[in-house]
Amino acid sequence: MRKIFTVLILSLFTSSLSFGQTYSATDSVIVTSTNTSITGWGRGFEFIPNVDIYVSHIGKRSLDSIGTFVWKIWETTTQNLVYTQTSMVTSSGNYVYEATDSIVKLSAGKNYILTLYSDQSGYYYGSSTQINANLTYVQMVYCNSCFATMPFPTLTLSNMHYGTPDFLFSKCAPVDTSVSISGNTLTANNSSATWYQWIDCDNNNAAITGETGQSFTPSTNGNYAVVVTENNCSDTSACFNMTPVGISTNTANNELVLYPNPTKGQLTIEIEKNNVVAYSISSIDGKTIMEGNISKKATKLKIDLSNESEGIYLLKIIKENSFEVYKIHKQ
Question: Is 114 found in the same domain as 160?
Answer without folding.
Answer: yes
